[in-house]
Amino acid sequence: MPDSTVIAHGDAEAASIANSADTEHPSYLHHHFNSTEQQADASNFAMWLFLLTEVMFFGGLFTAYLIYRNWYYAAFVAGSHQLNAVWGTTNTLVLILSSFTMAMGVWCAETGRRRGLVLSLTLTLILGLSFLGIKTIEYSEKIEKHHVPGIHYSLDSFLDPAHDEAAKAAGDKPLPLDMARHTEVYFSLYFAMTGMHALHMIIGVGILGFMIYRARAGAYTAGHVTFVENFGLYWHFVDIVWIYLFALLYLISRH
Amino acid sequence: MSTNTIVSLPDQSTARIPKNNFITRENGLLSWLLTGDHKRIAILYLISLSFFFFIGGALAGLIRLELLTPQTDLMATDTYNKVFTMHGIIMIFFFLVPSVPATLGNFFIPMMIGARDLALPKINLLSWYLYMAGGILALYTMMTGGVDTGWTFTTPLSTHYVNTNVLTTGLAVFIAGFSSILTGLNFIVTIHKMRAPGMTWFRLPLFVWAHYAASILMVLATPVVAIAIVLVALERTIGIGVFDPAKGGDPLLFQHLFWFYSHPAVYIMILPGMGVISEVISTFSRKRVFGYTAVAFSSVAIAVFGFFVWAHHMFIMGISNYTVLVFSLLTMLVAVPSAIKIFNWTFTLYKGSITFETPMLYAFGFLGLFTIGGMTGVFLGSSGTDIHLTETYFIVAHFHFVMVGGMLMAFLAGIHFWWPKITGRMYPEKISQLAAVVTFIGFNLTFFPQFILGTLGMPRRYASYPPEFQILNVFSTAGATILGVGYLLPVLYLVWSLKYGAVAGNNPWQATGLEWQTQSPPLTENFAVMPIMDHEAYDYEWLEKQQERQKELEVTSAR
User: Fold this and answer.
1) Distance of alpha carbon A60 from its chain centroid, rounded?
2) Which pTM was predicted?
3) Measured between CB atoms, does B549 come within 8 Å of chain A?
4) For each successive 10 residues of chain B (559 residues), what is the average pLDDT?
5) What interface predicted TM-score (ipTM) does this complex get?
6) Which residues in chain A have their CB less than 8 angstroms from residue B249's CB?
7) Does the domain formed by A35-250 have CATH 1.20.120.80?
8) Which candidate from A7, A181, A192 shows the least CB-CB separation from B242?
9) Which of A34, A72, B245, B551 has the highest local Cβ count within 10 Å?
């Protein structure tokens, strides 16, 4: 063990070991970090922790889903038949594609390609907006058919599936009144889960806009790519949540 | 109280507060409101926390005044419901949860591990703004009608049956929750990534270990209550049916989600306090904490077990007998790491050179009161006794023994212990010892009768009670008055000491932590030279050698 016991007023040698990174000082290195590696390490780690809190946040919803799906399986199947699987699949593809463009963006930032970064981020933004647009179409279908929980909720599609196109196409049989009423729980979860997901998408789109503005000025292609990397993690996370939502909400009876 | 003391202050005729420190570095309100310095943010937190504490305390005073007589005379029952609800919400979400972590943790974690700041200073400031936003919203709600669901927001009461401000209060708690998540996240990243050279995990002060464990809970548990509140809000506004039995939803699910956070939350509240106690007991008995590793891991064990006991809040709510059995067993398990801590602290005292400065008095208060609080928790964890005792004043007494007797004592111990480091000045010793004793007496007089009231069957959350309970309630109210004096005293003399206190010097307690090896108040960068850790935590021999070397240096330079 080295005999450098002085803490507050140490000798110059000890100081130079502790502050060895002081020789280079990029402008983006904050004063309290010793090196850019430490800074990037810390913010990446923080982002992973933040995503962990997000897992717990959605975890509460998934728990509720799991319980009610087990209790009211028939209602959940009938409810899922009312969702538009074509739009759902399209949206899944849109998001996977946007994850690809986002990954390209991170690569462009790391390799210092400013125009490539702006292009990738813009494509990601457009794909994100497309997702939200399709989601709006789906929501308005639900509003028209009175499938939004609350006072206007209608049980017609489940009590009388013969007069409902989507239910007829899926070959649904009429549900007993008791079970039909539980479809409202399914749609409660549908709106809570996709709504929370959409909220994350909206926040992501907002940050993307900010990032494109900054990327055009070359902010992320001069060595400091942590922000782009971390946002990429966030975007992929939101994407993964959707893939689970798609399988759990749209594909209940489609094996 | 005791003639011998470890306090060693510099010569008061020559000693000065260092001119360059984190307080004098910049001036003006904006330099505080836009600061990234963890020490300044800690002080912002300390001021705002104290503000909320006294509001919560005033509400508690109203509750005790109402309960002075068996009849409902001071306020209407509806008002009483609102008062105890706001007392709970303010004290839990705006005082206890952030109390030690946001003030002492914020200030000292970077200093203890030898860092210049927390890893994410802006996030740290953001967490204070979120805390203030939540707090102001909660106060606004209180002014404009309040909320009367109890701090637990239990469904379907909160979703269907009350017309009070559940939404805004829920939003306030939601926002404050994010503040807590960000604080915890910041601590974990800092402890992982910012330690000084030589500062290995097992050289960390136990204060840091305790905060690490509490941070894990903040990060993992808080999001769950956030989603539970979102679902309640959606149920109240658009009428989704996740908790609505009329639609097939289950109100119990809300309680599961709520207590999945709110049980770990009590460990979020108590663990940092335990960290303070470890530091104080070691310093004032001049011994390394007995069983350092066991105490460190018991913090982590409390955090882990803490996640698997939540349903003990629901024994009478209609969960199955098997669930009760399992959760009862798990609840007993969590008592083990807590007991490990108590025993290790006691063994630290054994053959130590104990002195009785104020922080140590508070720490002794903690040991006794927390033990009683913890043991009565075991009564409540056994399903048989719980069925009799739950929803009575026994619960109220248990909770306040742990939180007020435990956590608040630890908070005050910590504030006194680190006051010289934060401000550079000593608090007045005699009057603060008096305050510690007054607090202890007042506390016991307030809450011990409530154990008896609970076993006699007085239910909680009622504004009136049968006349035969009056004598014990009078004791309790009288004790609350004394307790109030005990809490006001520190505010007065601590403010006084800012100007008139003795200059403390670097290390008035002869403590070993890195935070004591630098000037008081510290520099904005914390250390003039970045420290290198080359000894174990609580190594008092190292400190003595260090001081001898310092003296030799002074002697040689004087020649």
Assistant:
1) 16
2) 0.93
3) yes
4) 73 89 91 94 97 96 96 93 96 96 97 95 96 96 91 90 90 96 97 95 96 96 96 92 91 95 95 97 95 96 94 92 94 94 96 94 97 94 92 96 95 97 95 97 97 96 95 97 96 96 93 93 92 92 89 79
5) 0.92
6) 68, 185, 188
7) yes
8) A192
9) A72
